[in-house]
Amino acid sequence: MKRILITGAASGLGLALAKKYAREGWSVCIADIQDEEGIKVAAHLNEAYSGDCFFQHLDITSDTQWQELVSLISERWQGLDALVNGLNLDSIFEFHSRDHLGQVIKSTLPTQEKLRALGPSCSHRSELETNT
């Protein structure tokens, strides 16, 4: 069974990708700041595809939350096969200030440190990051 982490998977393109991978038999971690939607998505995917899909709250700008997620994935799955960094395209076009735009950009581009933290958990380094 292959394992994938998708950030931003509670809605939009991330959600579409979560459904695609679950349908193909992957275990899917839905990581998002939208708790209510994320929980519903994970429940739906488990019911529809009988997989190991789960939700974890993640603000991708939070190093602490990334560390918690890495620990959870390492314990639950003993690693990852792929990571999709989902992108909320709506947020790019709806910024209210220069600071907000900077936060949007920062939140959509995972830092090298965060990817390195996931590195030991990944089975296939070449599949570590897929940006959407």
Protein described:
There is one protein chain. By secondary structure, this protein is of the alpha/beta class. Helices cover 49% and strands 16% of the residues. Strand 1 (3-7), helix 1 and strand 2 form a beta-alpha-beta unit. It has one domain: NAD(P)-binding Rossmann-like Domain (Rossmann fold, 3-Layer(aba) Sandwich). The relative contact order is 0.19. The protein has helices spanning 12-23, 35-49, 63-77, 89-93, 98-108, 112-118, and strands at 3-7, 27-32, 54-57, 82-85, 130-131. A five-stranded parallel β-sheet has the order 3-2-1-4-5, sandwiched between helices.
Quick rundown:
The chain has 132 residues and is an alpha/beta fold.
**C-alpha geometry:** globular
CATH class: Alpha Beta
Low-confidence stretches: 123-132
Per DSSP, the total helix count is 6
CATH architecture assignment name: 3-Layer(aba) Sandwich
Total strands: the figure is 5
N→C terminal distance: 23 Å
